[in-house]
Structure prediction request, 703 residues.
Amino acid sequence: MANAAEHSGANGHAGVIGGPDGSGGSTRLAAARLLLWALVGVLAVRQAAVVLRVPPGEWLADLHLPGALPGSLYDAGQFSGTPFAGLVLKPLLDLTATATATAPASSLELAWTCATLLCVAAVGLVAARGLPDPVPRRTALLAAPALVGLMLVSLPVREAAGPGQSAVLPVLPVLLVLLAVFRVPGERPAGFLLGLAAALQPALLLFAPLQWRTGRRTAARAAAVTFAGASALAWAALPGDSWTYWVHHLAGTGLGGTPDALANQSVHGALLRLGLTGPAEILLYAALAAAIAWTGLRRAVHHARDGQLLLAVAVTGCVAVAVTPTGWRHQLLWVLLTVAGKVGSHAADRRVWPVAVVLAATLPSSVLLPNIAVLAPVRDNVLLLTALAAACAVPFLPRSSPYWREPVPTAYAQPAAARWRAVPLLPFWRRVLSRPNLLLELLLIRVGYSIYSHIRAAAPAGRSRAEEHGRQVLGIERALGMDIEHAVNQAVVHTAWLEKSFNFYYTSFHFVVPLTILGVLYWRRPGDYRWARASLGLATVLALAGFWLYPLAPPRLMPGLGFIDTVHGPQDLANPQYGAMTAISNQYAAMPSLHFGWSLWCGVVIIVLAPKAWQKVLGALHPLITVCAIVATANHWVLDAVGGAVVVAAGFGLVHALSGPRRLEVTLPGQRGAGGDGPGAPATRGVPGEVVARVSSGSTAGS
Prediction:
């Protein structure tokens, strides 16, 4: 395993990087690498600034150790490390307590944070050198800064380097394991480092079976002996704390937080959150932990023998955190290292696993999944489920696979030339003719909508400014003779069935219809799906600019005009908060109206693509009914709908400017001779050579 590590990791990149390359390409790579390292520096400075902004009383709050505070390691209930970790940190805390008299506490907190960030940088550098051969030149040069940057924005590192945390403890074991596998040449020194890592996080002793199964039995024995010696030393020096940790708290269960807390991303914590308790939960947890450990270690051994040592290490780390009674979120840095594995035989599928891992490791679960009760088991355990998938389920490719180096290429087509030659087409824009990956699309839609919601909620919402803009809009409508909102609102209020109908339409169809259209296009017309999705996304981004630049009070929030909010109920206009609705969303994000804009997008897409006349009629009716609903319920002005139409038109226009018309120029191979009657024969049978067919993007590879 050590020899394999040297060839596939530390020394394996030299031949790749040293290969010939054009000076232009080398310059661009150097610039990109420098830019990434500069970004890493900015992220590190930002994390240090976050620490310094906290109140002084919270500095070093997690380090309740002898020397800093009297008593047991676990008196305060915040320290969750092993007794050996406390024993190692005690001299540092004694030094901290002494230095506090001469140095400000903020500098000490900053020093701990910097130590954590340096460990993170070291983890990224060592892990990048452990990528299996062959490593492309671009990957070899950019892997280290890219990985360090991703780790700095990941949830585990942000929590480990947060204010008051026990700093290097969550990151140091990861670094020790990576050094043992990739950088230390001898088995006994490597086993010593693995044993130290296990003494800091006992579940990491699972690396000893990995070493044993891969032929490094001396390292496995050294790891076990080191772990036993370190634990015995802690028992001798801190017998009370050792009893508390190993016996009373069952290997730390409940220290640092309740076992069923969301931060405990282990199988035990997940079962407790599901409501299971008592002996039944313990038995189920033990059975699941044994199955996960057996499956994960078996897969890790396979990856190690295949030369994918970094993936083997990452999988074993995921298993260790999942099966321990308390696997805190800041210990799950292993998940991010699983991006070293390759999944999928098609080139378009290679991005799915890395994107899913990065999103799960960097974004809160509230961004990835909506707050729906049925999704709570998944929402509360995103990092754990990602770790379990990497350990037990994801079909990583072996290096012997024919798709390891050359996956099945994606079919592209050139966009047709625009009717107006002055419209610039981006030369690198090529449309895919196959269906996009479903997981990536779902993640894109969910994360995109969550970002949109956060930006919309953060848009300026000053009441006086929004009401002033409302008076401006009403004045313009009166000048144009189109101020019909009050009359329509009062007419609907006095017609019960009409009021209920518009309320239902307003609240029910805003999301259902666009998502249904996207789903149908995805399944039946993938080329047009990309066209429609891009236009909708661009229109929504443009609408965000309107929310920021022109906060606008809708009619229902304009005092003294007599509008009635039929959807949300009466609003107390004397109260600046307007009740509970203000906490849900920005009430002044009204111009442009995306209620109407999205419905207009639906209508345009249906009219353009629907094959039946009655379908086109329904598509045209949807925006008409929507504009009546937003006006009748007093949620928008008529000019808001005009603004929605403008951003939708701009969205379609930008897509046209970027990619040309929906038609694509597809090169189809012609059939030579008369024997082209096989099942793969194209429509141009009998035409010699190659022909260029101009087709609608939706008619190719549609199902």
